[in-house]
Design brief:
It is a single chain. Helices cover 63% and strands 0% of the residues. By secondary structure, it is mainly α. The mean pLDDT is 93.
Length: 142
Amino acid sequence: MALNEHQRRRLEVSLGLFDRALLEIERSYLSLDLARGEMFELTSDLTFQEKVRIKATIEQIRERLRILRERFQLEPQRREVRSLLRGYFSHFWAVLSDCRASKLRGYGEVAPQLKQMLDPEIEALLVLVERLERIIEGRGED
């Protein structure tokens, strides 16, 4: 049974996104070394046995994906790291911009001194995000 080009593309994209999510689950959420930063910490409430069962199920899913790939001659989705990073930093530019004191009014009264204390730090973060964007775009070094 053959797929037309649109059907094939739809399956490739959808199954590619699913497979990417499975990779993220395995690498980011089932590892012993969970992510930790200054403002984010990932903790696991999964038991060892649950992790084993999740990993086994992911392997079964991968086998089904392999069967589908071969049966319908599907091509894996390829994404460039640069493209993924562009998306992250565009999003975070908007998120950080909305953290300025003037934007926090929607969440309640803003203390008068907050603008002087918060906004310079937010602006510094935005400058660093711009630096990351320039690096990603290959537009120069600092």
